[in-house]
Amino acid sequence: MFVMRVFIAAIILIFSFQSLVKADDIRDFQIEGISVGDSLLDHFSEEEIKKEIQTGYAYHYKNSAFVIIGLDILKSNLETYQHLSATIKPADPKYIIYALKGSIKFQNEINKCIKKRDAIVINVKNMFKNLKIKKKDIKHGYDDESLVYTHEFKFPNKDEIRIFCVDWVAKTEIEKGWSDGLHVSLVTWELIDFINKGGMK
Question: CB of 68 within 8 A of CB of 85?
Answer without folding.
Answer: yes
